[in-house]
Amino acid sequence: MANRGQWELQLAEPADTADVTKYKEQIDWTLRLIYTTTAVQKRNVAASGPEKYTEAFIKNQIEEFNLGKRHLANMMGEDPETFTQEDIDKAIAYLFPSGLFEKRARPIMKHPTEIFPKQRAIQWGEDHRPFHFLFYTGKQSLYSLMHEMYGKLLDIQKYQDHLRAQGLLAENRKQINLIGSRWLIKEELEEMLVEKLSDHDYLMCIQLLERLVTLPCCGIEEEYVLKFRKELAIQLKKVMIEPLQYDEQGVAFSTGEGKRKTSRATAVVYDNGSGKITVNRVDYLCYFPVMQDREQLMFPFQFLDRLGIHDMVCTVSGGGRSSQAGAIRLASARALCSFITENEVEFMRQAGLLTADPRIRERKKPGQEGARRKFTWKKR
Amino acid sequence: MAAPMAGRLAALGRRLAPPARAWLPGLTQVRWSRYGPSYLEPEVNKEVYRKPLEGLSEEEKTQRELKTLQPIKATASNVTSSVFSDPTISKFTNMMMKGGNKVLARSIVTQTLEAIKRKQIEKYHQASEEERESIECNPYVIFHQALKNCQPIIGLCNIQKGGKTYQVPSPLKDNRKRFLAMKWLITECREHKHHRTFMHEKLSQELLQAFNNEGPVIKRKHDMHKMAEANRAYAHYRWW
Q1: Which residues form the Small ribosomal subunit protein uS7 domain (chain B) (predicted)?
Q2: Interchain CB distance below 8 Å, B17 and A206
Q3: How many CA atoms lie within 13 A of A17 on its CB side?
């Protein structure tokens, strides 16, 4: 116990003041506290854990935020009723300009639910007894969820036995359609339960759900299982298809941009052509003497069987010969999207022509000779 | 129908799920990729896309539906959809390559195929009518058949037991067989070649010999099989 207060020695009152000399050797001293610092009274700060926000506090913050939003709208001369979060961000950036590089360090004004992390309310009552029966496991939401899921599994099995007894199992098979969705990832499940999970816990949950899904009559618990599934977006929607443009002679053309490692390329694909390709004002046969690069240029056209139909003019800069060829391939594939049907665009995507190759040169690490090569190992 | 579909979906879920083994301090993940775990391999073959929708089975239909939802990796630079690109030839070219000189490796391989073709055509013209049918002139067919003939069926692996290391016969995976065949061919040509002979000439000789099940590479394969047969007694040392 740190002794940071001021203590003074005080003489205890002798029993008989007249005989001080007699009691000279029997003087006893007591310590008396006259002054303390706050450091002594405060407990160990680090051990108390993250700050707990009460519901009243959060409610207060939300009210303040809403009021502040209206004040801000008035200040900027906008209508307080239709002041969106984007307008707030723009207003704050205007009123408090910051030159800091770290975007998260700049001044922000967001709804308190986004700023204060979601925490659970106090889990015990006034008599200090916890509400939930699994509180003392430490992970009450996780175990109660697994308990609930297993209960559903047993219900489905009971229903199946019931049908089997009546002989109606073969006709009443109801499966859940899981195509187009994926299981929630660990972070999303943590958010749902407001509790930290380990990898093992998450795997246990997913394995139990998969087991549930394999049962023939799991359709009765469909909406429960779908709570743990997230919809996957159709990938084709993410591909941008530009409309065709027409030049002075009435020839249709389309532009596309592509990159690979450090190369950047732009390609203009013209209709009614004869398969002529010009790269940086030079014929492709002279610019790419290697066969492999020319094959890569031809790849999108050959895949769509449009080899002799289109003309191409492209510019490319940066990188080496292989990465320039890859960049032009991506640019021409993107330009060709305007000339073909949606099904063909999907086929091109599945052939890997419309994905920008994300592979880059791996950096050299300190303590090693290269990205992976280590220095020669010496025994001593 | 339900069980295999569920199994496939389980496989998808397992692929999307984190690894079963939690992070161990001694083992850092070195095999990472710029692509996320949900990216699928691209399918370049045009015939797959030309199939009509009605001619597909249930499984293939579900496969197609799943593919529309997953992102796809970009195709590599040595792969095209043309009839001339062959994955075995690409693998062989990469193994021949030294110091990143793909141009030289590819030129050697094309010259090898040309040399094989020339030799076979000469043989064809010099042969009689009955023999002409049995002579194979397609260099790609000869290449594939020669590599297939060079692949060992059984391999040896080192197992330490009681202080001594034993050569134990064990089955080989397909990839390993292909790799060993190509490796033996290339090392044979590099080591036992006169310094005045070109690599493509020596390679074409070896490939034609392997196609006819003769030559040093086939001999090496047979040596491997004999060793495995001789060490049959130690086969029970293998526990997988």
Answers
A1: 78-232
A2: yes
A3: 3
Up-side HSE of residue A8: CA atoms within 13 Å toward CB?
5
Tokens of A93: 């950036």
**Which chain B positions have a beta carbon within 8 Å of A299's beta carbon?**
75, 80-82
Closest CA to A259 of A328, A310, A343: A328
ipTM above threshold 0.90: no
Partner residue opposite B77 with nearest CB, options A173, A182, A292: A292
Taking each helix axis as running N to C, give the angle between helix B87-96 and helix B174-191, from 0 to 180 degrees, rounded to the nearest 10: 50
Over residues B181-225, the pLDDT tens digits come to 999 999 999 999 999 999 999 999 999 999 999 999 999 999 999
What is the Cα–Cα distance from B90 to B193, expressed in whole angstroms? 23
Q: Could you tell me if A230 lies within 8 Å of chain B, comparing CB atoms? A: no
Compute the CA torsion angle B101, B102, B105, B107 (nearest 10 deg). -110
Claim: this prediction has a pTM higher than 0.95? no
When CB atoms are compared, the residue of B5, B10, B77 closest to A322 is: B77
Whose CA is closest to A329, among A289, A357, A308, A287? Answer: A357
CB A112 within 8 A of CB A65: yes
Q: Can you read off the two tokens belonging to residue B201?
A: 């000439």
Q: Return the SS3 of A263.
A: strand
**Chain A residues 80-99 with a CB less than 8 Å from chain B:** none
Name the phi and psi angles at B6, rounded to 5: -65, -40
Distance of CA A365 to the CA centre of its chain: 27
pLDDT per residue over A20-42, tens digit each?
555 555 666 667 777 666 666 66
**Which two tokens mark A284?**
């492709």
> Among all residues of chain A, which has the CA nearest to that of B71?
A235
- Could you give the C-alpha distances from A268 to A91, A287, A288, A320, in angstroms and in order? 41, 17, 18, 21
- Contact at 8 Å (CB) between B155 and B238? no
With CB atoms and an 8 Å threshold, state whether A298 touches B19: no
Residue B183, token pair as written in the block: 């490796």
Q: Pick the closest to residue A292 from B175, B73, B109 (CA basis).
A: B109
Report the 10 Å Cβ neighbour count for A199.
Answer: 15
Residues of B in contact with A356 (CB under 8 A): 74
Show pLDDT as tens, one digit a residue, over chain A (380 residues): 445 566 666 665 655 555 555 555 566 666 777 766 666 666 666 666 667 777 888 899 999 999 999 999 999 998 999 999 999 999 999 999 999 999 999 999 999 988 888 877 778 888 989 999 999 998 999 999 999 999 999 999 999 999 999 888 778 788 888 888 889 999 999 999 988 999 999 999 999 999 999 998 888 899 999 999 988 877 777 777 778 888 888 899 999 999 999 999 999 999 988 889 999 999 999 999 999 999 999 999 999 999 999 999 999 999 999 999 999 999 999 999 999 988 899 999 999 999 999 999 999 999 999 999 999 999 98
What is the rounded (10 degree) CA torsion for A62, A66, A69, A70? -160
Q: What is the residue-wise DSSP string for A165-219?
A: HHT-TTT-------TTEEEPPHHHHHHHHTS---HHHHHHHHHHHHHHHHSTTGG
E strand residue ranges, chain A: 6-11, 29-35, 181-183, 229-231, 245-246, 252-260, 263-270, 277-279, 282-283, 311-317
